[in-house]
Amino acid sequence: LREWKELARIVAEEDALEEACRRLAAGEPVAIPTETVYGLAADATDGTAVARIFEIKGRPRFNPLIAHVADMAMAGSIAVFTPLASRLAGAFWPGPLTLVLPVREGSGIHPLVTAGLDTVALRNPRGFGARVIARLGRPLAAPSANTSGRISGTSAGAVNADLGDRIGMIVDGGPTRVGLESTIVKVEGDRLLLLRPGGIAAEEIEAVAGVRLERGASGVQAPGMLASHYAPDAPVRLNADRVRPGEALLAFGPRRIANADAAVKVLNLSQRGDLKEAAANLFAHLLALDAVGAKAIAVEPIPAAGLGEAINDRLARAAAPRQDSGEKGS
Ligand code: TXA
Ligand code: MG
């Protein structure tokens, strides 16, 4: 039997700023809402605090974290911005874009955050995240608030169910608006490498940048992205054209596959076929379908364009072969 432990204190974001800052300043990781997913945040300049993030998540140490900043001034003190990088930050910050840039010497970012790389992943979140960073006056390292390899938390309840016995405080900002992690782009001179599709569609970034996002680098550039991730307990079966006995169904759009009625339970990512709505529902629906104890979760085909790229990416990782090699994601 598992030892019973008290679950985390859940505090509404309106009332949480002071307490969150106090705990963070004392080196304690705190789960906070961002517009993408909840983050497990700690002072990015404090190695002990950052080490606790890895421990709580069971995350491999070679997988670097995103440093979250309050504004452009803080970002500029940490990393070197080319004009192209500045243009992207200007267009999409605060928001779900993470830029991988050369880290400055004396940035103060602890090497555990960057896993010793000479680059740093930077993001300026919207809302509570930005407020808590500004008040603390320090960048926050914050991976998604979930056990490594599991589904990212998009509500305080989901975070509590996963990490509640390992952390002291969860700041409740309601369900996250975007529902998927940030898009990660590495800026290399005039080239842009898409390391992870996410909450901003690649097409939108290309329109601002005037160059194409190069794909296929993620395996090398973001080691934590290699294997199974976002994994519910039930196996996930993609592009289903019929339901098999005992399966639950994750649907998309107004039309159902032929024998949808045979499913143990059906949840629709977006009845009207809207990818933004589908992204916002993705992780919560996966958790809810997992909870019915179905034999597997069948997933209807989802279009590949726009936010569909990120949705299909997360689903492919949820369906990837499971292994316990420590190669799991973030
Ligand atoms: O929306 C988000 O990005 C959320 C919220 C909390 O901000 N955070 C998040 O963090 O998704 P995490 O740790 O789950 O994912 C960060 C990813 C990892 O795949 C990591 O490998 C990659 O960013 N990464 C971090 N630093 C990097 C670097 N210097 N070069 C390449 N990849 C990097
Ligand atoms: Mg993650």
From TrEMBL:
Main location: cytoplasm
DNA damage recorded as keyword: no
Gene Ontology MF term list: L-threonylcarbamoyladenylate synthase
Domain YrdC-like as annotated: residue spans: 14-200
Catalyzed chemical reaction(s): L-threonine + hydrogencarbonate + ATP = L-threonylcarbamoyladenylate + diphosphate + H2O
EC supergroup of this enzyme: transferase
Family: Belongs to the SUA5 family.
EC numbers for this chain: 2.7.7.87
Signal sequence range: none
Localisation per UniProt entry: Cytoplasm
Official protein name in the record: L-threonylcarbamoyladenylate synthase
Keywords from the named record: ATP-binding, Cytoplasm, Nucleotide-binding, Nucleotidyltransferase, Transferase, tRNA processing
